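Quick check before the chapter quiz. The format below is the same one you will see on the exam, so make sure you can read both the input and the output lines.
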Amino acid sequence: MTDPYPTSETLDAFHRGRFHLIQPKGKGHRAGLDAMLLASLVPDSASGTLADFGAGAGAAGFAVASRIKTLRVMLVERAPSMVQLARRSVALSENRHLADRMEVIEADVTSTGAHRIAMGLSDSAFDHVVMNPPFNDQRDRTTPDTLKAEAHAMDGPVFADWIRTAGAVARPGGQLSLIARPQSLMDILTACENRFGAIQLTPVHPRPGEDAVRLLLSAIKGSRTRLSLRPPLFVHEHGGREFSPNVDALCNGLASIER
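Here is the expected output.
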């Protein structure tokens, strides 16, 4: 019998087996903590439609769909090889309980106007947009793996382009959720201006006493409510290597970061 998963791929379980992904092995980007924390920003009460920008193999979108049964999820990815992995993951027998609420499109979220709409990203079409942009600086992540390099870092005003598109496709009152490095904060706030308000920031620290390495941000389209800074999230407890109980629950779809 032919092995359905060649040595260049793996079949990985998430949310303690509640969904599975086919992911690249030895090349490209593999989902982990960032995608699960991003998914946790979508509240349990969410409903309607969600777009996962730069979805890769689909980890964040699948994690949202696994936890929230009232959401339809569109995975948006521009790399053809990752689009194929996402579509194969949707078709897995292990994911049959999610498949009728999942869609995958090949699209570049930096596209504008009629081109963007033609690719399937219509104006005011989504109640939620989540994104994990390639937020690293080109100088920070050098790799001969082109697919991985594009997933980690891109030239140009990444947040300006991605948040502009999020503002176009989100419905009034729709929620934007993203994960980024703290160094990207000014770019994000500038891009959100006149598009998204009620910004809530949650700093993510490896351990108490250590600097934040990620920011979780959620915002509401059209809101005029001022920015708020939420309590920090600690990935590990003092001296430990295991996830803290809070992060473990977030990563396994057992809790969310409520607004």
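If your answer matched, good. The mean pLDDT is 91.
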